[in-house]
Amino acid sequence: MKILVINSGSSSLKYQLFNMETESVLAKGLIQRIGIEDSFLEYENGEGEEIVIEKDIPTHKVGIELLLETLLSDDHGVLESMDEVEAVGHRIVHGGEAFAHSTIIDDEAIKNLEDVADLAPLHNPPNIMGIKVCKELMPDKPQVGVFDTAFHQSMPEKAYIYALPYEYYKKYGVRRYGFHGTSHGYVAKRAAQMMDKPLSELKIITCHLGNGASVAAVKNGKSVDTSMGLTPLEGLVMGTRCGDIDPAIIPFIMDKEDISASEMDDILNKESGLLGVSGVSSDSRDVEDAAAEGNHQAEIAIELFNYRVKKYIGAYTAAMGGVDAIVFTAGIGENSKDTRAGVLEGLEYLGVEVDYEANDCRGKEVFISTADSKVKAMVVPTNEELVIARDTMELVNQ
């Protein structure tokens, strides 16, 4: 069975084509600058052949048409016919409370998605657009939605409710939803397999650390708490997002700077985090380089990032009544040995100590705690696209 996985953004679209018999990637790539000048498609087939097609791509429809042409091309393609593709899986950021599991996307599901689009105005509309285009271009193919929020729907009410007037939850759905759920669920399962223990018997803290970052408490295989909230803004320090702050700061700065709510929203989401504190970059590698050269703001940005992760690990250990494993994943979590060491240092009281030799690695599954550590620390590269493909295959085969 071949499954096409689509992750549609406002001006970009990531894709992977899987052969599910072997779970191998037949082709993958990225369409960039949709609706903008100098648009192009990046394409790599399973044999490692890479090409870039520069072409005017004014709409998502044109982009997906170009993608399908490339998959079928005599020169670089991996398909003889679109009949080989049995379904399309879509990453959808926000499912609200309507979607606790991956689902076949029909007209009713699209309506429900549009009803919660205001909870993720930057992400859900392009996600929905990608689905509609695929339904138009491939009307005979089942479309499956896999939601970033779904894994966290197991949180108890005490973890997801905010201490605001309850009517805002009932009227507008204002509550903690959490994100990166596909990643948190995948790496928790892999961690249990690496430990050779049942996931249903473990308490695992998963740290998805990238430009967007979140921590989840996974108890007995279910998410019981996570750091992101109604939106992906809450929680950890991120590339450009502030994470947790005193809410009173918002009207204070708006008054002092005489700025609008939308301008303040841009500051919190696009000008804060590592970028805002360091004044250097939103990329942790650039910030680490600046810190190594003695840039004080960069040093503080890195310390703040690590400190916030450490605090959440402590909080979630308390929430679960203990912890068996701490897992690092995503761009920073998989590749920055300094970040992992900085987060874990000082957690020896929990029963975890860093094996610095093992921690000197990038992007591979490995234990980075000492052999005698009671709590295991490990790196598990995430694979959200594979999870989407697996869920899509499972639903289509029912």
UniProtKB/TrEMBL annotation:
Top-rank taxon, per record:
Bacteria
Indicate what this protein is called per its UniProt record.
Acetate kinase
Where do the annotations place Mg(2+) binding? Answer: 7, 384
Q: Which NCBIfam families match?
A: ackA
**Binding of substrate, residues:** 91
- Pfam families from the xrefs? Acetate_kinase
Q: Which family does it belong to?
A: Belongs to the acetokinase family.
Enumerate the active-site residues: 148 (proton donor/acceptor)
Q: Where is the signal peptide?
A: none
Known partners and oligomeric status: Homodimer.
Q: Which UniProt keywords apply?
A: ATP-binding, Cytoplasm, Kinase, Magnesium, Metal-binding, Nucleotide-binding, Transferase
Where is the protein situated, by its record's location annotation? Answer: Cytoplasm
- What cellular-component terms does GO give this entry? cytoplasm
Give GO BP annotations, semicolon-separated. acetate metabolic process; acetyl-CoA biosynthetic process
Query: Which InterPro entries does the entry mention?
Result: Ac/propionate_kinase (IPR004372), Aliphatic_acid_kin_short-chain (IPR000890), Aliphatic_acid_kinase_CS (IPR023865), ATPase_NBD (IPR043129)
Q: What is its EC number?
A: 2.7.2.1
Gene Ontology MF terms in the entry: acetate kinase activity; ATP binding; magnesium ion binding
Cofactor(s) this protein requires? Mg(2+); Mn(2+)
The entry's function note states: Catalyzes the formation of acetyl phosphate from acetate and ATP. Can also catalyze the reverse reaction.
Which PROSITE patterns has this protein been placed in? ACETATE_KINASE_1 (PS01075), ACETATE_KINASE_2 (PS01076)
Residues under site feature: Transition state stabilizer: 180, 241
Tell me the residue numbers annotated for binding ATP: 14, 208-212, 283-285, 331-335
Q: Where in this chain does the entry annotate a coiled-coil region?
A: none
Q: What is its main location?
A: cytoplasm
Pathway annotation: Metabolic intermediate biosynthesis; acetyl-CoA biosynthesis; acetyl-CoA from acetate: step 1/2
